[in-house]
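To illustrate this point, what follows is a protein record of this kind.

___
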Amino acid sequence: MATTLHALIQDNEESLLELQQRIDYHFTDLRLLQIALIHSSFSFERLDGGNNNETQEFLGDAVLDLTVGYILFKRFPQMREGNLTRIRSALVNETGLAEMARSIKLGSYLFLGKGEEVSGGREKSSILSCAYEALVGALFLDCGYDQALRFVQRFFAPLIDRRQEELMLADAKSGLQEVLQERYNEGPRYVLEGEEGPAHAKIFFVSVRFHDRILGSGRAGSKKEAEQLAAGAALKKLAEGKHIH
């Protein structure tokens, strides 16, 4: 039986209130929150008017790019554009946003069609990440940029703190190459300084050098990982404004 957006809001008043308490924000316009929770499969099967969360998802994607970009800009003021872009991409992607959605149990509040319900749609990363974007879009529409930024900061700032080293290493070799190419029109050189351990469990020691200066070093169970760690150490020094010697 078809229903309306107004009827959905009335019938699900308690769960909408619970979700608002969970995210610590109360909507002025509950329709925006309700729409953020409606998957297109439910809209097609059950909803008069065809409202679903896809357009709010589009808006939320842009808001997340802006707010996470701003958070990273403030956190790493000396970091280069390419590295900031790579870190943002490591945070704002399907896997990362789905985890954010799971942290607030967003899946349990979604409205799905029968097929998606049966096939476990409430746990699908694709559906969860889109719903999270739609929720951010709804927040932006309801209260503007400042409140949306506070919401995103609440979830992303602790994650950036916890994963700072890992994020700094996201494709660190490409980042270091970019910096040195722009400044000197040359790239770095990676040197295998040594290895130890048995053949099945070797540890590799790698340095990254530029004009015979060691920019950073790393040790890991593979040469590629050791190179990334060495590049990451060099980038960390650059991001902190430290002199490389």
